[in-house]
Amino acid sequence: MVSEGMVSEGIVSEGIVSEGMVSKADEDETERGSGAPQAVDPAVAAAVAAAEAAGPANGEPVRVDSWIWAVRLIKTRSLGATACKGGHVRVNGQNVKPSHTVRVGDEVRLRHEGRERIVIVKRLIRKRVGAPVAVQCYVDNSPPPPPREAVAPIGIRDRGTGRPTKRDRRELERLRGLAEGSGKPRPSGR
What we know:
Blueprint: H1 24-31, H2 42-53, E1 62-63, H3 64-70, H4 77-85, E2 89-91, E3 94-95, E4 101-102, E5 107-112, E6 115-121, H5 131-135, E7 138-140, H6 166-176
């Protein structure tokens, strides 16, 4: 079976294709006006084949916790299930359980590690695949992550320096903007 993006001038990563077979990617390329189909990188063709092999067979449903793990949005599947149970995963605007099925075209919103990821499902896969293949399974509409300087931690002490002195504690509170010893923000009138 020849899939989209696997034809490269009559040669497929697994065998030879007859001259009459043209993939959907080649048809789209000719419609755009370039005339001839572009040569497909063998590594990309192999990656596409791996993604199709990782996909569900004949319309089987794919769970949302499994899909967000397979496309590398979450490190482990159990973290995906925990995120769903905690209300951090939304599909088409609705909070979902880990067993919710995902379909092509669904919008998945995931809050993880202080960042919101917004992706649209392009391809269903069940098994975890490499990062280049995983990126082809969704369209990322996420806002860019905040710059690293903006998230700089305040008052981190060097390891092994021991317990902070009273002077160190006061400096830390001054940096954090806290009033002395109360744990409340310092009034701006001082």
